[in-house]
Design brief:
alpha+beta; 2 domains; Diaminopimelate Epimerase, Chain A, domain 1; 20% helix
């Protein structure tokens, strides 16, 4: 029997019991991929991160799949492994996408993202709207695939109501948002002036999954804005989670900062709310 210590971290959490719960395992040695996936399924949270106590390599899993990269998992890992950092502090972690820098400023961890790369969507607005369950007239601007570390289809819509109405199906979403780098993923968002409302979906051959805190989606929204003519610098406040169609949900708040050199950082408040040891 092996003991696996873990931490339960709420990410993008303006209050302790808000945001998206992430589990971070900190074993003595990194378990193999099958064991990591088994542990991720056992924990049942949106994402589970693994980092050996003497290492810097981070592996991330959903309950069903290994993930190449995740901002919220990186923020949670930073909080779990460096809980006593205060003021200005930086940490570097390795992922399948290369090295990622995490910076803590006051109560908020920030992740530095790669430069955004874009390409046109392969489907027209009518096809995209039908797949998302909204009206074609609700789509604003040109939907783009944006890649700040993970390639995702970014679709702006006219109103929060259109965001709330979005209801994609797995088969059609898989064709719409197909990417060579990862599972098909789409961010649907609206800008109401003071804040952005976001829903974020990914899918496999069987199911559509909705995320409570899509940090990479937030970064890709910033990339979409710059590709659509937005000048830098600028900041974004993105709300997610309460839009999910469940009996019980809660708010995630994602902060995005783009500097004059068009560098993108994604940040959020993180809180360790518990932990323990799993026997396996």
């Amino acid at each position: 029997m092996t003991l696996y210590p873990f931490h339960l971290i709420n990410t993008f959490a303006e209050r302790r019991l808000s945001g998206n719960p992430i589990v971070v395992f900190t074993p003595d040695e990194m378990p193999d991929e099958q064991t990591r996936q088994t542990l991720a399924f056992q924990m049942g949270v949106a994402e589970t991160a693994f980092i050996a106590q003497t290492g810097t390599q981070v592996h991330v899993h959903s309950t069903q799949h290994a993930l190449p990269f995740s901002v919220q998992a990186m923020l949670a890992t930073a909080e779990a492994t460096h809980p006593n950092e205060s003021g200005l502090a930086a940490q570097a972690f390795k992922t399948n996408n290369g090295e990622t820098w995490l910076l803590r400023q006051n109560d908020r961890w920030w992740s530095q993202l790669a430069t955004a790369h874009t390409r046109p969507a392969q489907h027209n607005n009518t096809e995209i709207a039908i797949t998302l369950g909204i009206a074609a007239g609700d789509i604003v601007g040109a939907p783009l695939f944006v890649d700040c570390g993970l390639e995702q289809l970014i679709v702006q819509v006219r109103s929060q109501q259109a965001v709330l109405q979005t209801s994609p199906q797995a088969a059609s979403l898989a064709k719409l948002a197909e990417s060579s780098k990862n599972l098909p993923q789409v961010a649907v968002w609206s800008n109401d002036g003071d804040h952005i409302t976001l829903r974020f979906f990914s899918c496999d051959a069987f199911n559509v999954y909705e995320d409570f805190g899509a940090g990479t989606g937030a970064a890709n929204i910033a990339g979409w804005l710059m590709a659509s003519g937005q000048s830098a610098p600028f900041t974004l406040r993105i709300e997610q989670g309460l839009t999910i169609h469940r009996l019980i949900s809660r708010l995630s708040v994602i902060h995005v900062d783009v500097d004059a050199q068009r560098n993108i950082r994604v940040g959020g408040n993180t809180h360790r709310v518990g932990g323990g040891t799993l026997e396996f």
